[in-house]
Amino acid sequence: MTNEIYSQLLKEKMYFDQLDNGLKVYTMPMEGYTKQYAIFATNYGSIDSKFKIMGEEKIIEVPDGIAHFLEHKLFEERDGSIFDKFSELGSNVNAYTNFNSTCYLFTSTDRFLENLELLVKFVQSPYFTDENVEKEKGIITQEINMYKDNPQWKVFFNALRAMYHNHPVKIDIAGTVDSISRITKEDLYTCYDNFYSPHNMTLFIAGDIDHAEALKVIKMSMNERPSNAKIIQRVYPEETNSIVQDTIEEHLDVSIPLFNIAYKDILNNSTEDKLLNRDISTKILLDMLFGKSSELYSSLYEEGLINDTFEHEFTGELGYGYSMMGGESKDPLLIRDRIHKHIELLKKVGLSKEDFERIKRKQIGEHLGYYNSVEFIATTFIAYHFKGIQLFDYIKAIKKIQFSDIEKRFLEHFCNSQSILSIISPK
What CATH number was assigned to the domain covering residues 3-234? Predict the structure, then answer.
């Protein structure tokens, strides 16, 4: 039975159906848009390398990097390349693996239902052999070695390693050369059978489409695939709130140092509502503290300590979280010192309520503007969905955020003893 989800604030609606095998299907019809965007996602990312089946004692542990490896392998079929088939339909297909999910997607302007059928079918058709697994190891080894020399990649993952003692978020999404060398076709099928079960997956579509037509194609394309109804329990090591080291530095071929300063989040037992509130509050705070209109940004920029590459972000999940800011600078150590002093000063004099109101209005406006992008709607929907958050809840939640929420979050999160500095310096 189709359910309609309507946002009074946004004047937008989406439709939801759950198939008999557990697959969740959401569509957001956008009449008049020339592009369609479909994303078929599994709640399975790079941090899920240790798990067990509910009711069973045995813990299954697979090599790091296997989620990314599996994503690569699904594009290979017995009779050629999936990329060629989508190209023949005039569409673009892609995929990505992050810490928490693996997503397969396409954009099209024509022949949407044919593209949708192809997407659903190929993600359900694993083809792993000893030979093609060994071949893929060579390809991914090259990819891993390439990223070893990528300054932006290294400054980011070095920051994670400086923050996290045990949590697998500190491990490269692609794994290591050693870990992928141990992947077998049996490992791939084990992960596929457990994490690519329909009940662990969601399909979201946005654009000028008809929900009933799309649903009909999806049902036909599922090949009557039954769901593996076993409940998966992910197993993560305990992680303390302390950081590993406050400074980490590496030398690569860069002309000017790159840096990331990060604040490790102190985790509480978060519900979905609290997770969304934390996400919104922290992003408002980051804009207040480090946005282009902030006092600190202006002074650092005018002194030539930062340039237009400086940016900030917050990542908040149920098991980990951090705020990170960085870019290029001739003196990352001085920037850290300035940020620390600025944080301590604001704890004494207080945050600006005017800044809060202005940034809140700005972020509401930006969010509303994003609804013109099918890509934003689809990728943001999936990111929130796997946290148990409904996309339409964002606008309600941000309107409810009060200055007192921001003050509380500031004191809780921006603790200088919880901060690290990652630097990539010239050789």
Answer: 3.30.830.10
